[in-house]
Structure formats: structure tokens, C-alpha cells
Prior knowledge:
Chain A is mainly α.
Amino acid sequence: MSLTRTDVENIARLARLEITASELEGYVGTLSRIIKFVEQLNAADTSAVEPMAHPLSGQTQRLRADQVTERDQHELYQKNAPGAEAGLYLVPKVIE
Amino acid sequence: MHTLTIAELAAGLRARRFSSVELTRKVLERIERFNKGLNAFLTVTADAALEAARRADQELQAGRGGPLTGVPIAHKDIFCTEGVRTSCGSKMLDNFVSPYDATVVANLKKAGTVLVGKTNMDEFAMGSSNETSFYGPVLNPWDPKRVPGGSSGGSAAAVAARLVPAATGTDTGGSIRQPGALTGIVGLKPSYGRVSRYGMIAFASSLDQAGVLTLTAEDAAYLLRAIAGFDPRDSTSVDVPVPDYVAALDAPLKGLRIGLLKEFFDAGLDRQCGERVRAALDVFKSLGAELSEVSLPALPLSVPTYYVVAPAECSSNLSRFDGVRFGHRCENPRDLLDLYMRTRGEGFGAEVKRRIMTGTYVLSAGYYDAYYLKAQKVRQLISDDFRRAFEQVDVLMGPTTPTPAFEIGAKTDDPITMYLNDIYTIGANLAGLPAVSVPCGFVDGLPVGLQIIGPVFSEAKLLNAAHGYQQETSWHRKIPEAYA
């Protein structure tokens, strides 16, 4: 199927991506082609197939014990933050 | 010194023919001299490298250390490296200095390797030509008008140009094997879960795997032995014993059952590339291997399956880049939504945005079953095809890529044309299988790769087969003229 400008604007908003007007036209074209390309999967008969849940058959996601294993290193980690103060990450005001 | 393999360097270091400091200086000199023409390195860690080399020399002098002690290597800039900028080829992480080491980085440090720098890559490993990097394309050492492949293009070009003897890479849809093939070196993608992904920036978590780019299968065995193994910090890491890949290299190949992958010798395969691969198969035959043709009927659906699964997972993984905790942040955000939208709009490049949007679309309400669930079912069909094939044969062989390296800019206009370049490599990722690309000749002066795929955790067998082939051939000894 082909995507419209409105479709792509909606997708970009869901994905929290600002797309400029000049970029939009290009994405309408390439995303439509990609969606059309992957639709060839419809030709495969998968009526008797379970969707793959893990790349290695029989493996499941391992869980760990609910115990503290990391020490507090927030000062080190917050060195990479665009804005941090008093151990807190700074963001624009959310609640008026 | 710069043309030696890891195995040869290890012998030279032990025999004191040269020190790690001398070797590291030589490597740094070559990077300084040649990197401008390749754009393979994003960061060079010269001071830390010389310090590590001095420590390695002390170890070697005391008669300690292993075969990797004092050997210089480079890491793809997707591996978090403590105290070093780790950009993932993106403006989003241009200012990110990792506070910790990825397990692959830590393991190779422990093994005594000397890290000389971080290599260029497609942005967030999304690309097959290294043209999506925020830092510009990497050039192929065999022809600077051509791409080195991607996404581990910087690692591949650095090794092929003999700037470093080996480098790490990651492979989600062919990102180690394809650049390995296009630059004439060995590229090994291990089984899913074989090597820890802790600290390896995530793209598509059901596909991503860390591996290595080297001159020989023997060198890949040395490195894999150091990086493979269980890691409690990666929940997809599998707790199975790590065999001695080096000890398994010399097993005779007589009786090895090789399946020729019928679907890989399709209309899209360049005629001359096909001839080189068939000639390589004859070498295996002369070593006593048994060849038969094997068909995997669902395999031609690999690329469309991948372009649902991988973007879906990337759209989820890359939601962490929000301009709050690390990475790029837009100027003067009006509110939280504006912060997210502009940070991500500015921080990501065109291909990354395209994949995030593809993934967002296929996972969105009303489309999940039609696209994502359908793709995971076809993925199961492809995986079943491989399982059945490995009841008949020990390994599968075919080309790594349909053509030799293409020209820069040749495939940037149409994403589908670019995606189809990975048509022979994606299957192994979808099924979680190990695979290796080995240089098997040239077409018009450009390298061609033979791909060997095996059952899960058969890395020892793959490297044994690749090593046996390299004992009979000298393609891996060819060096691009400008870098000899």
C-alpha cells in the first residue's frame, strides 16, 4: 500500500521525530516503497507456523534474581547528561 | 611488520623480534599517514595505546601474557569504551564519552590487546556502504571511488589497508561479512548469544551479534576464543562451553559435507563473482570435501522479513535517545514534546529516521499482525529451512555478496536497492547462525568473498573450513597497492 503525507506525519509524531517539509516528500516515497516491498511476505503460506519467539530454538529470556548488583554511580553517569543539577536530570517544565 | 597476522605478531613479540611499543608506534604512524584517505578511524587513542603497549611489554618480558598480549586492535565505534568517545557514527552520540567498557572491550583488554582507536561505521549500524555515517563515508582501500561495505566499514578498511591487524565489528544483517567480502578480508559473525552484547549499542536485539574482522581464520579463532562466553550482564548470552577454536583449526576437511546454497546462485549474482565462488568450492573438493546442492525455498524472503523485524526492533531500541540522560539535545526546547521531537529530528540521520518510521509503522495499532507477526512467522520458515539443511550437510556455502564493491553514491537514492545488497547475508542473522566470509579471489581488481554458514555454535567447524581453504590459497595475502 502507498502511504500519504498525513500517514507519514502521523508516524513521525508517534516516533517523536521532527521531519521538515522538504524531508516529508522523500519519506512518503521511500516508506511507501519499503512497505510495498515487505508486503511480498503475504505470498508465503504461514497458516501452520508459530511466530518465532527466540532466534535459538528452545531458548527463553533468562531472568536474574531481584537483587541489587550495581553500585550507585549517578555522578559518573550524569556527566553525559545535557542538563543535570543536584543529582537530577533537567527537563522543560512538565506541570504548570 | 604491518603485513603480519596476529599469529605471526604473537610469535614476533615472544621472540623479541620487536616490542609491543615498536609495533604500536608503527600502527599509529600508519593511521596518521593513511587515515585521511580512508576515513576509517573516528578516534585514535595514541597515548593510552602506548601506555597499554608498555604494560604488555612488561608482561611479555616477565614471560607472562597470552597470544594476544601486545597486539594492536581497533573497535567499531558501537562498543562502549571507558573514557573514550563512543559515537555509533551518529550526531546523536557525538559528545558521548562512555562511563564503562563493553564486555567485548573488557575481554580483549584482559587478553592484553592494545586498543589504538575506534572505527567509522554506518550510523547506528544501519547501512551496507558506510555512507550513512555522520562522519562521512569510509573509502575502500582497493578503489577510493568505491564503498568498503557496511556497517562495519571502518573496521574492514582499517584491516584491509593493514593499518591494524584486526578489528571488532557487529553483524545484524551482514555488517561484518559484507564489508569483509568487499575489502578482501575475513569477517566472522558468531552465533546469536555466543558473544556478549553488553555495552554494544543496540540496533535490532533479536539479530545483533558481535564479531571480528581479520586477515585469516586463524586470527579470528584467537579473537573469538577471547570474546566468546557467558555474560550475566547480557540476558541473551547463552551459557554453553567455549571450545578451543585455535586447536580445532587444523582438523582435516576430508569428508566435510558441503551444501551449495542453490538460492544464492540466483539471477542477481554477478557472473564473475559466481565463478570465483565455484572455484573456491573446487578447492574444498580437492581437500576431500563432499559437495551437494541444497535448496532453502523460504530463503528468498529473507530481505523483506528483515526489513520488518529489524526496523521494528530499532524503533523500540532507539527510543532511549530522548535528549535527557545523554547525547544530543536541541537548543531551547519549548516543552517536553518539542525536546523529544527536535532532539531526535536533529540527532538522527536520514536512514536512521527512515528505519525508525518503518518500525513505528509496522508495530502500530492495526498493522502489528499484518507485518510484524507475519514476518516472525516467515522467519520461522527460514529457520526451519536451515535446520533441515543441516540434517544433510555440515556447512552451507555460497557467495557473501551479489557483486564486488559498488561506487560511492550508486545506491543511495533507492533504499531497496541498498537493502538487496545484503540478500545473501541476512538469512544467518534471522536464524541466529554463525557465518564467515573468506576472501576467494578478485573481479576487475576488487575482492570477492566466499560465505560459509553453519549450525548454531559451529564456529570451530567454520573456522576450521576457512583455515583449510586459506592454507591452499593466498587471496588473504594480497594487499591493496597504495597500502603495501
